[in-house]
Recover the amino acids of this structure.
């Protein structure tokens, strides 16, 4: 089947929906809008400017910004100018930022909406050219100034479907970022089939999860593009609730942490006991549900997704009582976010849904979930060894463990690899962090965990030296370790607290291998019921 490329979809809506609003962004409380035609012109002007730089074809151009209209326009401009985009998380450490810019061979960097740019700036090579955005400007040449006298590209540039469109850096098992390569065809295949399957048409989307993450990039940016929809943005964390309520999207993607915050906000105004009574009265129940849905900004939402990390069944059931039916989805960067979804009329709580069209799925003898379709990654950039370990005989080895029922519904049961996701949907590689913590001689063994909690926590067993210390001195030592280690980590890796457990991990109690390595899965199963309580406790917990 022939699929239209992202640029071809942009050209289509430039003509067919020229005067309809495509991008809507609140700036200082005022909504700024770009129609399809206006966005197209901005893209064409920046693409013309990028071409004027005479960079080698398919040069890597990076984006460092929180979500905004110019993020999406930048991505299109990079495509149109014949180059490859490298989206970056807007809260990277300077060290990680520098590594990615060097590894990707970035030739130019767009710097946009950021909270702590001064902490990241040391990671940018001093000779790297940068462009900054209107409204959110750093001390670099500004978008509007650079495009002021530029003649927009008039031609409808078409990129080859096998050309690399983007390199998305995601944490690897070693802790070093790995660049996932995706060609244009992958976006075309994944988005066209997902939009048709759900189905989505003329939708309204709300963008707040990082656009550099594959889920937001595919569902919101590409989804709006292929469905001919509108994208509204959140201005800040403080205005998030108001912006979402004003935007009232028809499609919404949340992560577990967001659903928990929504729940806490509702219960603050309406305690559970009172809510139960009101929901038991037929007419009042309908009014309460509508009021809550409208207050959240979800009264018009037809597809309400959760993903990036497991969402507790109890939370999904709680929202279902309010008429908010959350659809779990499952995918990853390496498969262009195209794998499994719960359709709005086929929700099976506890499952992440069924395989999307043209997506094959099977389980290995270890029950590892294996995925195969035409939009798997083209590999990890400059890392053929890791690529060969991840895609074997055409099957993507996800590292996730699962079961599939007779109707094809997939349930995630754990990880077959060490990498884990926090409830914010961020991957964390524990081993490098554990190595840093182990520098404290009071620590004998350490296991960093974080599934279904916002930030990682460290479970430790004390060394003999540590066991002999006065408790106050031990706590002070561990707090110092956190103060030394956390600044060296990216924000999503920072250790929230340390838990000192009494039981040693040994070969005899099956928490160590014969070669004295910790059995991560066994430790997780032993302690995971305590994670949430520990997370909410003191910075150092003597269990």
């Amino acid at each position: 089947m022939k699929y239209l490329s992202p640029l071809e979809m942009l050209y289509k809506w430039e003509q067919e929906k020229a005067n309809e609003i495509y991008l809507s962004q609140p700036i200082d409380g005022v909504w700024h809008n770009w129609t399809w035609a206006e966005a197209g012109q901005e893209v064409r002007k920046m693409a013309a400017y990028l071409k004027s730089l005479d960079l080698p074809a398919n040069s890597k151009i990076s984006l460092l910004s929180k979500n905004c209209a110019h993020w999406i326009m930048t991505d299109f401009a990079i495509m149109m100018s014949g180059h490859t985009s490298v989206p970056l998380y807007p809260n990277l450490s300077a060290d990680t930022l520098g590594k990615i810019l060097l590894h990707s061979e970035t030739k130019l960097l767009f710097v946009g909406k950021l909270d702590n740019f001064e902490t990241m700036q040391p990671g940018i090579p001093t000779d790297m050219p940068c462009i900054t955005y209107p409204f959110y400007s750093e001390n670099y040449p500004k978008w509007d100034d650079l495009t002021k006298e530029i003649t927009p590209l008039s031609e409808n540039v078409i990129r080859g479907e096998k050309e690399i469109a983007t390199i998305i850096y995601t944490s690897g098992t070693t802790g070093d970022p790995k660049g996932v390569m995706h060609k244009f065809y992958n976006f075309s295949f994944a988005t066209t089939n997902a939009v048709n399957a759900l189905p989505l048409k003329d939708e309204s989307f709300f963008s707040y999860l990082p656009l550099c993450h594959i889920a937001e990039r595919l569902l919101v940016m590409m989804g709006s593009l292929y469905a001919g929809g509108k994208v509204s943005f959140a201005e800040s964390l403080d205005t998030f609730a108001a912006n979402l309520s004003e935007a009232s999207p028809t499609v919404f993607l949340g992560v577990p942490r967001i659903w928990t915050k929504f729940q806490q906000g509702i219960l603050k105004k309406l305690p559970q006991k009172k809510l139960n009574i009101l929901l038991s009265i037929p007419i009042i129940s309908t009014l309460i549900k509508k009021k809550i849905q409208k207050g959240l900004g979800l009264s018009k939402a037809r597809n309400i997704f959760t993903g990036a990390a497991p969402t507790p069944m109890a939370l999904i059931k709680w929202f279902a009582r309010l008429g908010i039916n959350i659809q779990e989805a499952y995918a990853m960067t390496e498969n262009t976010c195209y794998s499994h979804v719960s359709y709005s009329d086929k929700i099976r709580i506890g499952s992440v849904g069924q395989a999307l069209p043209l997506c094959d799925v099977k389980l290995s003898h270890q029950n590892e979930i294996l995925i195969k379709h035409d939009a798997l990654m083209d590999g990890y950039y400059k890392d053929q060894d890791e690529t060969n370990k991840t895609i074997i005989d055409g099957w993507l080895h996800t590292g996730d463990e699962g079961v599939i029922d007779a109707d094809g519904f997939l349930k995630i049961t754990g990880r077959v690899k060490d990498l884990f996701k926090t409830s914010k949907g961020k991957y964390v590689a524990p081993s490098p962090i554990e190595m840093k913590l182990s520098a404290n001689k009071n620590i004998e063994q350490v296991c960093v965990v974080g599934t279904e909690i916002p930030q990682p926590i460290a479970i430790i067993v004390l060394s003999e030296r540590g066991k002999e210390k006065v408790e106050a001195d031990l706590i002070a030592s561990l707090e110092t370790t956190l103060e030394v280690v956390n600044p060296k980590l990216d924000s999503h890796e920072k250790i929230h607290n340390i838990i000192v457990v009494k039981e040693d991990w040994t070969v005899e109690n099956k928490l160590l291998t014969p070669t004295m390595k910790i059995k991560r899965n066994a430790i997780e199963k032993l302690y995971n019921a305590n994670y949430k309580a520990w997370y909410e406790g003191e910075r150092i917990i003597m269990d």
Summary: Residues 201 and 227 are 5 Å apart (CA to CA). DSSP finds 19 helices and 27 strands in the chain.
